[in-house]
Amino acid sequence: MTNLLLTNVRPDAGSAGNILIENGRIAAIGSNVTGPDGITVVDGKGAIAIAPFVEAHVHLDKILWGLPWHSINVPDSLRAMIDNEVEIRRSLPWSVAERAGNLMRQCVANGSTHIRSHVDISPEYKLDNLHGVLAAWEKTKHAVDLEIVAFPQLGMLIEPGTAELMEAALDEGASVIGGIDPASVDGDAKGHLDTIFGIAHRKQAKIDIHLHERGELGLYELGLIAERAKALGMQDKVIVSHAFCLGTASRDELARMMDLLAEAGIGIISAVPGDIPFPPMFELADYGVRCAVASDSLRDTWNPHGNGDMLERCWLLSWRSNCRTDAELTAALDMGTKRGADLLDLAGHGLDVGCDGSLVLIEGENQAQIVVDRPKRALVVKRGRIVARDGSWIDGGGV
Ligand SMILES: [Zn+2]
User: Fold this and answer.
1) What CA–CA distance (Å, rounded) separates 1 from 87?
2) Domains in the chain, please, with CATH?
3) Residue 393's beta-bridge partner residues?
4) pLDDT for the residue numbered 75
5) Nearest 5°: phi and psi at 362?
6) What was the pLDDT predicted at 187?
7) pLDDT of residue 226
8) Cα-to-centroid distance, 51 and ligand 1 (Å)
9) Quick one: average pLDDT of 111-132?
10) What pLDDT is attached to residue 66?
11) Distance of CA 155 from the midpoint of ligand 1 (Å)
12) Whether 119 contacts 60, CB under 8 Å
């Protein structure tokens, strides 16, 4: 089903009208728009229509959701949590494909129709996590687009063979090369970055680096990343996830970094952590630095929280950023929708004629109110096909 007429909907909470989707694309929008005889018609009952959410950073291979509650009782240190996860994943009763499929369906039910997922690559895992996530996607690809980051969670230089496996992952479905805390995980910031930039440049892949390192070290590494992006002509192809160092930078340091990030086309993703200073997202956006929010790790051996709902992540940003006006709350919503699409360079995202026929209907008064109240998604449409209704995934998609 790729043809659909939605009646009585309010694009971006504006005036009520109809949206015609033909051959998977928005063909017309307006109060008098109709469709050809026999087209499926859905009454939107005055719901707000928005372009879909973009889940720009998640870990589909790590999810434990659906399994018995997992109690986290390891020290709050990166190495301890890495080792703990490896141990637990050796004996999980469900496959990567089963677990990843669960989370993908949940993301779609909450209105995300594009996911960028990191998958762990290591000599122990080999490419098994990549293959498991791709197997899950075989059953959901009508509802969600997927980008995969080959992620060296266990370290790269300290785990010989990892870089070669990451490069091999690019030939088997991944399109982004990951990195993690270059100095503290691998103990060689320049060596780590030179390796991942080398692979990405050679294979024309994008880059997405987890950077938790704080203070001066984090800022120094952001500088190294920007330097390499510019030298290799990779502007707009590199994202830094978390970048906690920007949350504690002085005004002068922040101004210098924003110049650098904008010039080198480095994007920033934040999961809006609970107790850690995070980048000033709205200030970055106003300055011209591409940025968005995303879920990151959820319901796994790292984090007991999270539910794959990007509207909740937008609310979290608005809460932690003290958004009060309608304009500020609407800007928070954009961080999970339009800005996510811009960050990942998604052609066709939007509610204009010619865009993909993908959208989310939400019952509410306006965009500010839906960020605060987070209503269930009434309908999720992917290229003209209804893939979720009333907050629930529809098996196989349909009407
Ligand atoms: Zn992550």
Assistant:
1) 44
2) 4-51+350-398 (2.30.40.10), 61-343 (3.20.20.140)
3) 388
4) 82
5) -135, 130
6) 96
7) 98
8) 24
9) 98
10) 85
11) 14
12) yes
As a whole number of angstroms, the distance between CA 168 and CA 150 comes to: 9
Q: pLDDT tens digit string along 62-106?
A: 999 889 999 999 888 888 999 999 999 999 999 999 999 999 999
- How many angstroms is it from 69 CA to the middle of ligand 1? 21
Whole-angstrom Cα distance, residue 140 to residue 136?
A: 7
| CA 354 to centroid of ligand 1, rounded, Å | 33
Contact yes or no for 301/283 (Cβ under 8 A): no
Order of strands, sheet of 41-50, starting from the edge strand that comes earlier in the sequence: 25-30, 17-22, 4-11, 41-50, 359-362, 377-382, 385-389, 392-398
Written as six digits, the tokens of 71 are 């109690």
SS3 379: strand
Using N-to-C axis directions, what is the helix angle for 162-170 and 189-203, rounded to 10°?
A: 20
pLDDT for the residue 1: 52
Per-residue tokens: 180:
């993690």
The span from the CA of 255 to the CA of 148, in Å, is 32
- Average per-residue pLDDT for the chain: 96
Distances (CA, A) of 309 to 38, 72, 154, 386, 398: 34, 22, 27, 18, 22
One-letter amino acid of 379: L
CA of 211 to the centre of ligand 1 (A): 9
DSSP 245: G
CA of 119 to the centre of ligand 1 (A): 9
pLDDT band (50, 70, 90) for residue 397: low
Report the C-alpha gap between 282 and 328 in whole angstroms. Answer: 9
Rounded to the nearest angstrom, the distance between the alpha carbon of 12 and the centre of ligand 1 is 30
* Locus of tokens 């986290």: 72
- The structure tokens listed for 43 are 């009454």
What average pLDDT does range 189-205 have in this prediction?
A: 98
Name the more confident of 391 and 1. Answer: 391
pLDDT of residue 186: 96
Whats the size of the chain, residue-wise? 399
Range with the poorest average pLDDT among 74-88, 119-133, 272-286, 376-390 = 74-88
Give the pLDDT of residue 274.
87
Contact between residue 301 and residue 62 where contact means Cβ atoms under 8 Å apart: yes
Structural tokens at position 67: 């399994």
Strands 176-180 and 206-211: parallel
